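User: These chains co-purify. Model them together.
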Amino acid sequence: MNENKGFKNTAITVNMLWIFLFVLVPNLIVVVISFLERDPVGFFRWEPTISHYINLFDPVNARVFTHSLTYSFGTTLLTLAVGYPFAWFLSRVGRRRRPLMLMMVIVPFWTSSLIRTYALVILMKANGVINSLLVTLGLAKGPVSILYTDVAVYVGLVYSLLPFMILPLYAVLEKLDSRLLEAACDLGATHLQVFARVVLPLSLPGVMAGSIMVFLPSMGLFYIPDLLGGAKSMLVGNFIKNQFLTSGNWPFGSAASVFLILVMVSMMAVYLLVMKRFNRSVMP
Amino acid sequence: MPVVYLQNVSKTFENHVVIDKLSLDVFKGEFLTLLGPSGCGKTTVLRLIAGLETCDQGVIRIGGKDHTHVPACDRDVNTVFQSYALFPHMTVFDNIAFGLKLKKITPMEIKQRVEETLALVKLSGLGNRRIQQLSGGQQQRVAIARAIVNQPLILLLDEPLSALDYKLRKEMRLELRQLHRKLGITFVFVTHDQEEALTLSDRVVVMNNGCIEQIGPPKEIYEEPVNRFVAEFVGESNLFDAEVVETRGETMEIRVQGVLKAVKNRRGFQAGQKVKVLLRPEDMTVEPCKQDCPSGSFPGRVEEMIYKGTTVELIIRLEDGKQVVILEFFNEDAEDISYDMGEGVCVSWIDGWEVVLPHE
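Assistant: Joint model of the two components:
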């Protein structure tokens, strides 16, 4: 009994220490640095300032944020549009075929997302697989530029984040009682009306969870726009990375990441609030 | 003209024939019950009428028009589901208004009709409640209200009372009858409970293995079952093997348990034919045996006596080992019914109350 307690305490202490040292402290350092002056030699000077935060709202920098938000929003909508029908199909397909289809969603996780992004580059580049195919089939006269366009960035983001949309949606749709759909049909609802009035409202928790799980990471995935969008599409993730690694402006990079964290936290708060109200209305 | 007309309807699920060339007419305004053991296809018949299943063969006509391929949403038919299937994300009011809203009825009229229906199912004032806040019995009423508010041509009820406890079930039975009378809608009711079927219906359809065994008013089903399945499924019964000895026009003489008895011959049985004699427990009589049993009765011994409040059930073993169940009522002639275990008795039945069935 005593030994057990000792093990429990040690395990908790080690974990807490780990989180404290490698999660909390670095983040606190980031917050502190974001309020300090920049220094060309030592990265920062012990002089408090809020100029970096004000700087974030400079039109040039603010555009990075709005641009990022547009990308993330677009990615969320696209994954929703692709993921919802797939999750629906997955939840209605026979029990025997379902594990195989779920595997197809999960298997890509076994490879590093970075490597999969490089694979997309090979597919989409000027003399890549897709262009060769188009030219061979005579559908295009010469190579079509896909890589380093907005399309390529969206393809990469949607591809990488789709499972995060499908899985929460599947979890909700799978539990949806098909008798409710029959009841709606019986009461005179067409397929579209059944979807709009019964399926969609009841799957809203999944839509919300999936959207959050796609929207938030898409803001930070810097290597996808880097590799697929070229230098043109600067997103928050790249922006922060550049401040630290290229411009050597640690305080400004810190301010940008603190701001990003704030945006994410407030979105999570909205999500939790909405879900709480939803649960109160649906759960017993 | 029947309001629902099924002709030679067949339905197969994964090579398993669920409905086999079934034909059925449902008349306007009647309370029709589909009765049968689970798996007999009664729910499938209901779902075929609702349009939730499509038949492989046959024709379905509703209100005189061919509905064989009309989808569920375009049929003037509503269902009360066994599990109620109420929408958990809507209030009681919104659940009931669901069908009306789809029909583009003005909000004023919707409100009025929902309120009326709520009153009809005795749920006035509960419109704003969440479904989860209701008891099972109340959810049942919402399910009924949600269907009848649309004033369908036919109301289908799929074992709606099976989830309720005994007392509530009896109460709801009475209310369903009253509702049926008030609304004048045709009810098609599915159940495996023979008591429910007999107490509620104008006509009962007894089903087995995807086929109809017998259709008729409850009294006829109970008193004149056409075969052994119906006899045994609807109520308790004692079956005796017998042989026709001689026929005399409307009557005949049969040998049953080694005793000769005169019975009615309604089905044109021939001398020498093997038959079954069906007797309900309450149609049989029992008397203490003094010495020998009078002619026409069988000697036996009391094996068990079960007191049931208004009746006493006697389980009697006949001399050849056959077991019979007899129900005795307390009345002015028999204020006290009492037998000893193993006491010798004479068993007979009230003349003319037997049903003679062909041997199967």
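Chain A is about 75% helix and 5% strand.
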